[in-house]
Amino acid sequence: MLKLLKSFLLFVSYLLWFNLSGYAQEKPPFWDDVQTIKAYDNMYAPPASPILFIGSSSIRKWIDFNKTFGAYRVLNRAIGGAVINDVDFYLNDIVFPYHPKQLIIYVGENDLINVPDAETVFAAFKKLYGDLRVKLPVVPIIYLSIKGSPSRIKYQEKAKKSNLLIANFIKSEKNIVYLDVYQPMLDIKGNMQPALFTSDMLHMNASGYKIWNKLLMPYLLKD
Questions:
Q1: 142, β-bridge pairs
Q2: For residue 39, what pLDDT is reported?
Q3: Can you state the percent helix, strand and coil of the chain, rounding each to 5?
Q4: From CA 223, how far away is CA 20, in angstroms rounded?
Q5: Residue 205 falls within a domain, yes or no?
Q6: Within 10 Å of residue 204's Cβ, how many Cβ atoms?
Q7: For residue 13, is it within any domain?
Q8: Has residue 130 been placed in a domain?
Q9: What is the count of structural domains for the chain?
Q10: Would you state the pLDDT for residue 18?
């Protein structure tokens, strides 16, 4: 009887371990990153009604972010490596709780790697935009176009078509601006400029962000 009880307890322990292990593996992408953000917010209260920057690493790594936008009430809640669906998934965590007065979005470049075509990128963008508008129907949005990164040159036709589809859609919408950062980052011959990027040829250096800053500043809302 004791032997049977031990075997039963061992079996129950195995099931518990298996379920917990499975739960850990099933966490959605960037779950831990988002929990870190929420824990940080509990320690340091975010600004009220900020200009909220969301998206992927090109926003998360924005050089001199607080200094550059020192005249504005800003908050950076981008997630490095995120695709459009990731941002959409976490809207209740990294967007809506802050009650932003303006949204700056850069996301879509990481999608290019795994999706079959530009139409898929566009469909994901439309879903993100629609979900944002459910709770933020009139908040001004600035969507930064997908940039041309030298390390991802093989995806650039897909990037350009994605940009075109998104730009045409935004033309018919209210309170959203499509801000082209693709063309301004090319040289006079229409080629990408490695000098605007760090050594990985994906993330921008200060020269790249200088272009973005100049393009974006006229659209930011002051208090």
A1: 104, 177
A2: 97
A3: 55, 10, 35
A4: 47
A5: yes
A6: 22
A7: no
A8: yes
A9: 1
A10: 44
Return the pLDDT at 20.
53
Measured CA to CA, the distance from residue 136 to residue 151 in angstroms comes to 35
CATH code for the domain in which residue 56 is found: 3.40.50.1110
The verdict on residue 1 lying in a domain is no
The DSSP annotation for the chain comes to -HHHHHHHHHHHHHHHHHHHHHHHHTPPTTHHHHHHHHHHHHHSPPPSS-EEEEESHHHHT-TTHHHHTTTS-EEE---TT--HHHHHHTHHHHTGGG--SEEEEE--TGGGGTSSSHHHHHHHHHHHHHHHHHH-SS--EEEEPPP--GGGGGGHHHHHHHHHHHHHHHHTSSSEEEE--TGGGB-TTS-B-GGGB-TTSSSB-HHHHHHHHHHHGGGPPP-
Range of the domain at 93: 46-219
- pTM, 2 dp: 0.88
**Element holding 142 (H helix, E strand):** strand 141-144
Which residues of the chain, if any, have pLDDT below 70? 1-25
Tokens of 22: 């499975």
Helices (H) and strands (E) in the chain, counts: 9, 5
In 10 A of CB 26, how many CB atoms? Answer: 8
